Amino acid sequence: MPATRTTLRRSLAAAAALPLLAVALTACGYGSEAKDDAAEPGASADGKKLSADTVKIGYFPNLTHATALVGIQEGLIAKELGGTTVKPSTFNAGPSEIEALNAGSIDIGFIGPSPSINGYAKSKGQSLRIIGGSASGGVKLVVDPKKIKTLDDLKGKKIATPQLGNTQDVAFLNWISEKGWKVDAQSGKGDVSVVRSDNKVTPDAFKSGSLDGAWVPEPTASKLVAEGGKVLLDESTLWPDDKFVITNIIVSQKFLSEHPDVVDAVLRGTVNTNKWINANPDEAKASANSALEKLSGKALPTEVLDPAWESIRITDDPLAATLQAQADHAVEAGLLEKPDLDGIYDLKPLNKILKAEGQPEVSDAGLGVK
C-alpha cells in the first residue's frame, strides 16, 4: 500500500536517523546536447593559487539552476577561484551531464536528484558525490481549466510528465497511487493517461488540446499558464515545510580527491551566490534571465519569468531526506530496483563553509561518506 501524505511527512522527519536506501532514476527530459561557453579567469580577493588551472562546471539553461546561472554571470564563483579559470558547459539533459562527468569533460555539475541517483548507482558508488544543494520546488500541476476543475477530474485525462521515471514522473505516479487510482508505470495507461512529453514540446501539445495538463518543472509550468492553463497543485505543498530537492551540486570523486581546494572555492562561490540571490531577488531574477538569453538567444517573458521565479527556493541544503523519499516512490511504483546509495553525499566541505559563515549545518540523512 502506498504511503499517505501524513505517513510521508512522518517518515521524512525521521529519515535523518535511519539508514536509507534509494533507487536509480532516469533524468529529466531536456534533450541531450551540451554547449561549451566562454569563460573568464577567476580573481579572488586573496589571489590564492589553487591546485587546478581550470574547473569545468556543467549546468542546465533553466531557472532551477539559478545558482549556476547567476554565480557564473555575476562572477561570484570565479571570485573565489583565484587564477583558476571557470569553464562552463550547458546541458539539456541529466544523462548527458553524467556522461560528461564520467568522461572528465566536466568536474562539477548542477543537476536534478534523479540523474544524481542514477549516476551514482550505475557506477556502484564510484562516479560522483553530492556536495551541496541549489534549489527546491518549482514543480506544478497545470491543467486546462475547461476540462479539469478539481483534482478528482484528472481521472480519465491525459497528463504529461517530462520523461518515464524522471523526478516529476515519479512524483505524479506516487500522487496517483495515493489517490487510490491505478496506472501502469511503464506504459502510463490506467485511470489517468500519463503521457511522457519533452518539456520543449509540451506547451505546444497543451495549446493544441492533445494534452489536458502536465506535472512539470519551471519554467514549463508557467509557459502552460501563459497558454491558458491553471495551476491546480504546487508539488511543494505535498512536502514537509514545502521543501523538496530539485537541483543538487555534484562533483567527480576523482576531482574531489585531487583538487579539494578548488571544490571548496566553488562551494564558497555557490554559498555566496545563494546568499546574494536571496538578499536581492529582483536583481537575481534579472541576472538569471539575462544569462538564459545569452545561452538560448531568448529571454523569458515577464508573464513566465515572474511566477516561475517565485516558486523556486534557492538553498544550500541538499534536502537529502526528500531525495530519499523521491527514490522510494520510484521503487513503490515498480519502476526500478533499490541500489545502495550509502556515501552518495559528502557535505563536510559545505558544512565547514556554512559554519564559518555562522549558518547552520545541513544533513546528509544518513547517506554521507563515513
Number of strands: 12
Strands ordered across the widest β-sheet? 1-3-2-4-11-5-12
Estimate the mean pLDDT confidence: 88
Instruction: Enumerate the spans where pLDDT stays under 50 for 5 or more consecutive residues.
Output: 1-33, 38-45
Could you tell me the strand content as a percent range?
15-25%
Helix content, binned percent? 25-40%
Task: Give the radius of gyration.
Answer: 20 Å
Structural class: alpha/beta
- Report the biggest beta sheet as strand number plus sense, adding barrel if it closes: 7 strands, mixed
Topology pattern, helix = H, strand = E: HEEHEHEHEEEHEHEHEEHHHHEHH
Query: Judging from the principal axes of the Cα atoms, what is the shape?
Result: globular
Any overview of this molecule?
With 370 residues, the protein is α/β, with parallel strands linked by helices. The protein is 37% helix and 17% strand. The chain has helices at residues 5-14, 66-73, 94-103, 113-122, 167-178, 202-208, 220-226, 253-258, 260-279, 281-296, 302-310, 320-332, 348-356, and strands spanning 34-36, 54-59, 85-91, 108-111, 128-137, 139-143, 158-161, 193-196, 213-217, 230-234, 245-252, 312-314. α5 (167-178) links the parallel β7 and β8. The longest helix has 20 residues, at 260-279. Mean pLDDT is 88; it is low at 1-33 and 38-45.
Layout of helices and strands, plus pairs?
Elements: H1 5-14, E1 34-36, E2 54-59, H2 66-73, E3 85-91, H3 94-103, E4 108-111, H4 113-122, E5 128-137, E6 139-143, E7 158-161, H5 167-178, E8 193-196, H6 202-208, E9 213-217, H7 220-226, E10 230-234, E11 245-252, H8 253-258, H9 260-279, H10 281-296, H11 302-310, E12 312-314, H12 320-332, H13 348-356
Parallel strand pairs: 2-3, 2-4, 7-8, 7-9
Antiparallel strand pairs: 1-3, 4-11, 5-11, 5-12, 6-9, 6-10
Helix pairs in contact: 2-9, 2-10, 5-12, 7-11, 9-10, 9-13
